[in-house]
C-alpha cells in the first residue's frame, strides 16, 4: 500500500526540554499521564502501534488522493501541563494547495487520546475543492465495531479466532462519510481493520484555509473484552467514557485563533459558541463582537462568514440557521 511505503526508519527520543521547540526525524514517542503510548511516525504522522498493539498505523491523511508525507522533520512543543504538540510541516499539493498537521497528546489523568488537526491551505486566487480522507488500521489488522453513533466509533481488534485482541480504540469525528468494520473478520489482511472517514467537496476560499479535526482514543488494558459478551468490557467502557467527554466538551487546548476560526468539520460556522445548536446565544456573542476583527473579538468564530470582519452579515447568517441542531 502506498502510504505504508512512505514510512521511513524510526529513531528513539531520549530527553526533551520543556518549553523549547525541538525537531526530530523518525518516531516521536508521546506518553499520556496514564502511561499509554502514541508512537508518532514520520513522515506521515500516523500512530504506529500504540500500547499493546492497539493500532497498526492509524491517523493517515490524504487530500485529492495525495497522502500526506512531510518534506522535513516534525517540530515538538512541550506545553506547561506537559502535553505535547507535534508541528508537521506543509506539504505542497497539486493546484496550489498544501496540507500541514498539528498532532497533540494531553498529559492529564484519564485523557488517553491523540488529536489530529489537518490544515489545508489554498494559496491561489481561485476557489478550490478538496476531497480529504482520514484513515488508519486497528491492531492486529482485524476489528469489530462495538458502538457506532453519528459522531463516534468504538472499535476493538482481535486475532483470527476472536482472541488475543489488543485494547479497543475510539474515533470522534464530525460531518464525514465513514467506513468501519462491522464484525470480526476471519483474515489478517490490513483491509480487515481499516477505518476511514472521507470529506467530499470541501470548499476553500482563495488565500484561505480549512481545518479538519479528529480525536483517536486508546483504551486502558485493565481487563478483557469478549466482543459478544456484555459486561466483560472494562477497556471498552474507558474508551466510551473518553469519547462522551470529548463530545460534550472537545479539547481545543493549544489551538490558535486561526485553527478555531477555520474548523470545517467539527462545528458549523453559525454555532458560534460551540454548544451544538444555533440559537439566540450565538447572536448575542456576535453582537458583542460587532465592528471587531477575528483577532480582537472575544472569539474568532464571531466572524461567521470568514470575511475577516464582524458585522450584520454574520448575524444574518446565524438568523438563517436558528433552531438548527448539530
What does this structure look like?
This protein has 326 residues and is mainly β. It has two domains: 260 residues, Beta-galactosidase, Chain A, domain 5, CATH 2.70.98; 42 residues, no CATH class. The protein is 13% helix and 33% strand. It has five helices and 17 strands. Strands 1-7-8-9-10-17-14-13-12 form a nine-stranded antiparallel β-sheet, covered by helices on one side. Strands 6-5-11-16-15 form a five-stranded antiparallel β-sheet. Strand 5 and strand 6 form a beta hairpin. Helix 4 runs antiparallel to helix 5. It is globular, with a radius of gyration of 20 Å. The N terminus is likely disordered.
In short:
The protein is mostly beta strands. It is built from five helices and 17 strands.
